[in-house]
Hints:
The chain is an alpha+beta fold. 39% of the residues lie in helices and 20% in strands. The chain is built from eleven helices and ten strands. Strands 1, 4, 5, 6, 7, 8, 9 and 10 form an eight-stranded mixed sheet that branches. Strands 2-3 form a two-stranded antiparallel ribbon. A hairpin with a 2-residue loop joins strand 6 (248-255) and strand 7 (258-272). The radius of gyration is 41 Å and the shape is elongated. The relative contact order is 0.11.
Amino acid sequence: xxQLEGLREKWLAAIGSADxxxxxxxxxxxxxxxxxEITALLSSLGTLAPEERREAGRGLNALKDAVSExxxxxxxxxxxxxxxxxxxxxxxxxxxxxxxxxSGRLHPISQTIEEIIAIxxxxxxxxxxxxxxxxxxxxxxxxxxxEDHPARQMQDTFYLPKAEGAASPMVLRTHTSPVQxxxxxxxxxxxRVICPxxxxxxxxxxxxxxxxxxxxxxxxxxxxxxxxxxxCLIDFVRTFFDIEDLKVRFRPSFFPFTEPSAEVxxxxxxSHGALKLGQGNDWLEILGCGMVHPxxxxxxxxxxxxxxxxxxxxxxxxxxxxxxxxxxxxxxxxADVRWLNHYGFQAMDVPSMVEGLSR
Length: 359
Ligand code: 2U9
């Protein structure tokens, strides 16, 4: 009996000081495993005389149960301690404020281009791009702009130094039209593209900067007509300015690359000092457009007897200023972080016809 009491104390002490599940498992194996101390004692019962066996058996079984129970209880305790430690080290304070929003802002020009792409994208037009440095043919000649046209003059166009052997100097493109020229020269209709990008003109005052952004569009197919042009642009301005009943007027105009040509005005009010779109009886010019001149189609290898199309162009700074109430063109290019914080957009708010154009 004394021996059993000694064993009990030994094993219970060992169990009580086991501080990890692995240590506890080793103790279980040493005491109760196949070759464990208590198991061995139980196996040796058969060697005892029957009357000794009963008493020793009872004592050994009680010891075995006590050790089993102690292991079980200790295991539970260790599991709880382990969980407590994890809860402490993996603590998340749900009362902390949310992460501060990303501090960068999207420039209003980038935002406006994304909006334009979303609107025309919905109508089936895709984006085409080209280089800022163009040759004379793509920028002028193909567009039916004559040699003596004022746009070609030094005062208006940035000419690069003429390369040796070249017929004419390269230019910084004065509009994004050369992108449509490249598109027509490289593929046959149907063509449905918009071309947003940087353009350059040698001009700098309150309302002009030497670099500005344009978006132009081109749609060419066998039966494209002026009705398509009007529907497309009326839809565009009403969606862009988010004014369902915005008045739109097509006023005859002239461009060398379109015939007939028109300038598009939208209804506005100027009578109370501030400009209000969609109200009043005034008009504000917003973009130019027309049916692509047959000579331009032929210059690009497109049969003008079979195909016709429309084109349009607008200044991106101008429509961004009107939509977002930005009063001064030159501030677009000052890279003033306070201006950008005020007029900029959250980069994650991607304009779409489903989620909305701007927030
Ligand atoms: C091709 C054929 C025709 C593009 C057009 C305009 C009218 C227009 C101005 C608006 C303000 C430029 O930014 S702005 O100064 N643009 O009025 N643009 S039609 O016509 C094209 C283009 C390419 C092959």
